[in-house]
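Per reviewer request, we include the raw input and output of the structure prediction for the construct analysed in the revised manuscript.
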Amino acid sequence: NNNNNNNNNNNNSTQIVCISSLAGYRGLPGAIIYGPTKAALSNFCECLRIELASLKPNHSHSIHIGCIHPGFVDTPAIASLNHPKLFLMKSNVAAHHLLYAIIYKKNHYAFPWIMENILMKAALIAPAFIYEPLLAYIFRHSN
């Protein structure tokens, strides 16, 4: 949820921001290493926020943990990927999203909105017997 934030605007607080990916939400072809490591990073951030919140209030509010989940960003790293890059965005647009999430200390921030809130949420609730063959078909026919 992109509206989820700490509301701690204390300039003296520490902020740790991790860059995960929408690819960490659910298994994707061609992301055998990338997707699971991004999923682990997202889980790590969530666990760390919970651990910090369980500390005495004076301690937990001085550290903010944010996790940002970009979709496809037009960079040389993904230019050679041979699969659909839905809602591909320019790096300067992605940079604005990153800055927004950092400045407003978002716990969880994902973009583009339609990719997270429509496509990836649908992927999360789809049963494996539908999701897996569907993605295999899409990626097989996209090359």
